[in-house]
Amino acid sequence: MPNVLFDIGYHTIWVGWLRAEDQTVLTMHERAVLGSRYAVTLDPPRTWQLRIRPLRAEDRGCYMCQINTQPTMTWQIGCIDVFVPPDIMSDDTSGDVSVQELENATLTCKATGHPAPKITWRREDHEPILLKKPNSREFEKVESYVGSSMPLWRVDRRQMGAFLCIASNDVPPAVSKRITLNVNFAPTVKVPNQLLGAPLGTDVKLKCYVEAYPNTINYWIKNRGEMLLDGPKYTIREEKSSYKVSMWLTIRQFAKSDIGTYNCVSTNSLGKSEGTLRLYAASPVQPRYSATPNSYPDVDFLLRDPKVI
Q1: Would you give the DSSP letter of residue 45?
Q2: What residue intervals traverse the membrane (predicted)?
Q3: How do residues 187-207 score in pLDDT, each as one tens digit?
């Protein structure tokens, strides 16, 4: 622990230590006056040491050594600085933030420490941070953002995710807090192929893409009828990643009774959306053969022009 040392050059004297800022007496000669954290020792013949253990942040400042050498008094001042690692102030730092899409949001992170900590923001998934300037639709991609507050203008769903607020001041260890930004919006459904044809007797796979937050309830219906259920005839599968969901419907042993219109439907607390797919039977024509000597023919099936039923 740091010591404040002065070589005073006298043999028979009285030495007192004071806090220079407010003249609080800490020790008088070899006796501690203000608590057990303060002690004074003499390294013969002329060096008096003030020891402060354990050192605290509030001990930062200047200390006065007063030497009573009657009829005069001599004094000398020494100062110490106390470095403190960063600590995030939970009460002044954002918790998880939830906003509607196109609203403004601000993520805030405050920390204590000495020297004053630097606040750096990064995405937890290591993707670039998307920042939009006021009155602009264009995004700027940055690896990190420095500042205690990170403003987000007209928030977009692509900005959703977990952010790390990292406080550092070159006094280890650095500390961080995880803050999640949730962007709420009604479902949107995209259908990559709205018109599908397949030969009878095959397995047919239909697909839809959903974007929404909060989480959605997703299902399939046929010809505006009842909801389709997973079972021997249908295989229903979903894959979710953040606010994106991929929906698959597999129809086994495609038959004439399966021809029709299918809808993938997605709903959450903010709205409902659906996509439409039309499925028809495409009959193969006579196979076309291409033969080579001493080999079996290769068969290529050709489909007639789509016939929508």
Answers
A1: T
A2: none
A3: 999 999 999 999 999 999 999
Q: Which domain holds residue 234?
A: 191-281
Residue 211: what are its φ and ψ, rounded to 5°? -125, 130
Q: In this structure, is residue 107 part of a structural domain?
A: yes
What is the distance in angstroms between the CA of the first residue and the CA of the last residue of the chain? 88
Q: What pLDDT digit, counting tens, does each position of 159-197 carry?
A: 999 999 999 999 999 999 999 999 999 999 999 999 999
Question: Around Cβ 221, how many Cβ atoms within 10 Å?
Answer: 15
What is the reported pLDDT for 262? Answer: 98
Residue 249 pLDDT greater than 60, yes or no: yes
Is residue 100 situated within a structural domain?
yes
Give the whole-angstrom CA distance, residue 66 versus residue 44: 18
Structure tokens at 130: 């998307």
Instruction: Give the count of domains, the chain.
Output: 3
Measure the CA–CA gap between 186 and 28, rounded to whole angstroms.
73
In a domain, 268, yes or no: yes
Q: How far apart are CA 178 and CA 150, in angstroms?
A: 14
Main-chain phi, psi angles of 90, to 5 degrees? -60, -40
Radius of gyration of the chain, Cα coordinates, nearest whole angstrom: 38
Task: Choose among 158, 177, 159: nearest CA to 105.
Answer: 159
Retrieve residue 93's tokens. Answer: 């730092």
> CA 230: distance to chain centroid?
36
- Any idea what the Cα angle at residue 206 is, between residues 205 and 209, rounded to 5°? 135
Asked if residue 173 has a cis previous peptide bond (ω within 30° of 0), the answer is yes
Q: How far apart are CA 240 and CA 220, in angstroms?
A: 17
Mark 14-39 as b/e (b = at least 16 C-beta within 10 Å). Answer: ebbbbbbeeeeebbbeeebeeeeebb
**Rounded to whole angstroms, how far apart are CA atoms 147 and 118?**
7
